[in-house]
Amino acid sequence: MSTTTLDADIAAAPQQAEPDAEREVVPAPAPAATIAAPAKRPRAPSRERTFGTKVAGQPAFVLHSYPYKETSLIIDLFTRDFGRVALIAKGAKRPHSQLRGVLQTFQPLSSSWVGKSELRTLTDAEWVGGMLPLEKTALLCGFYLNELLVKLLARDDAHPRLFDHYVATLNQLAHNEPAPIVLRKFERALLKETGVAADLTRCIETRRAVQADVVYVVDPERGPRPERAADPWPRVAGKTLLDMESEDYQDAATQAQSKQLMRFLLAHHLGGAPLNTRQILIDLMQL
Predict the structure, then answer these.
(1) Rounded to whole angstroms, how far apart are CA atoms 46 and 255?
(2) Separation of CA 74 from chain center
(3) How far apart are CA 112 and CA 98, in angstroms?
(4) Bridging pattern class, strands 119-127 and 83-89
(5) By C-alpha distance, which of 53, 45, 55 is closest to 24?
(6) What is the helix, strand, coil percentage profile of the chain, to 5?
(7) CA nearest 128: which of 99, 108, 98?
(8) Tens digit of pLDDT for each residue in 28-38?
(9) Cα(10)–Cα(248) distance, rounded to whole angstroms?
(10) Per DSSP, which regions of the chain are E strands?
(11) Helix axis angle, 160-174 relative to 179-193, nearest 10°?
(12) pLDDT tens digit string along 239-253?
């Protein structure tokens, strides 16, 4: 299945040449994503992996790629220590390029690049292995995960815990664990890691704990409150909210209500932008 619909964002990338991989690189400050006030600074990559504008041996997955000029590709990588980065893979479309068979989605890579602009140059990528391929419905679910990451993650914003959750989710899908449950857990983790997930365990009106036998709606920006007759938002039982917070999706009602709630919350945070793979999954499996 093609992923060309995933990345309207990268498609607008500037058409400019990047520094050659062999050019001498002057050490520079760490990437902007790792620079912050000391109290809030994310975990910095080790010295062994970084030097100035060079990055080497970074764990990564290809989220999306598309042709660039005649022989190259622009790829969107999800990396553990640098988040989502855009790279030019020079000559990757050539028949004998060592990158040609490596830059595949859902396969763990060790990646290296050079450059300090938003669009950097890939210098090396090696397949790490150790993961089963995704097939059939699991493959569609994988493309859905990638589309969410492309549309909801800012570039150069590190999310190492989300990266680990992504790896675990791919493994769960590859081992045929129930897709609806796997996807709900990842969607919730994504909203939490990007800082837009409300606390589902506390009512925003009473400031008391959510009650399992009360029906609520969830304000996307604030959290749950008791339903009102005129509410256009999805209604969910308090038990569903508590189950979601504890990642317990065994109850059929929790599965059904969490699906509607997450669809509503994602649509809000995407600003109404459609999810192409989501619609395919809805049509096929009502996920």
Answers:
(1) 41
(2) 18
(3) 14
(4) parallel
(5) 53
(6) 30, 20, 45
(7) 108
(8) 444 433 333 33
(9) 36
(10) 50-51, 54-68, 72-79, 83-89, 109-114, 119-127, 215-219, 223-226, 236-237
(11) 170
(12) 999 999 999 999 999
